[in-house]
Structures are given as C-alpha cells and as structure tokens.
Design brief:
Layout (H helix, E strand, L loop, with lengths): L3 E2 H11 L8 H13 L3 E7 L5 E7 L1 H31 L1
Antiparallel strand pairs: 1-3, 2-3
C-alpha cells in the first residue's frame, strides 16, 4: 500500500476486505497514534490529493518485523480455529 493518509487507509481496509471490515475514525486514528509511538509506523504532514493538509503514515522496518511476527501468530490461530470448527462440524 505504501504511504497513505488515515482516510486512505480506512478505504483500503474496506476495499481489500470486500466491504466486510469498516474501520471508523474513532478507532483508526488512536490505533495509528499507538503504532507511531511504538515506532511501527512513521508519519509526516503533507498535502492530500484534494490539496488539504493530512498526516501520511508509512510502515517502518521495525513495523515490518512486527507485522511478520503477528502474521505468523495469526496464521497459527486461524489454523487452530479451523481445527476446532471442523471437529465441531463433524460431531453435529
């Protein structure tokens, strides 16, 4: 996705999830600020496509490392849940 402002991030999440996930600004911006404090994203004020001042976010090297770790952990969790759901379905 590259560098993006908050509204663009929320639209990308919505589009790539097939309109299933919709992140409200009241949740998105506090999360982005936490990620910035942790050093996982960097932010810079710039002009948006509509020529308005907006804060643009970019994942950092540390953020990419954390993302890889979280991705592996989520993969294990999904596999575990699939196992539970399959076992439950076969008993029904």
């Amino acid at each position: 996705m590259g560098e993006q402002h908050g509204y663009g991030i929320s639209q990308a999440i919505r589009a790539t999830s097939g309109e299933v996930l919709q992140v409200e600004t009241g949740s998105l911006y506090p999360a982005l600020h936490r990620l910035e404090r942790q050093g996982w994203v960097s932010a810079e004020w710039k002009k948006s496509e509509s020529n308005q001042r907006a804060k643009f976010y970019r994942i950092t090297a540390l953020g990419k490392k954390q993302l890889a770790s979280d991705y592996e952990r989520w993969g294990r969790m999904v596999a575990s849940l699939e196992g539970i759901m399959s076992a439950t379905r076969s008993k029904a």
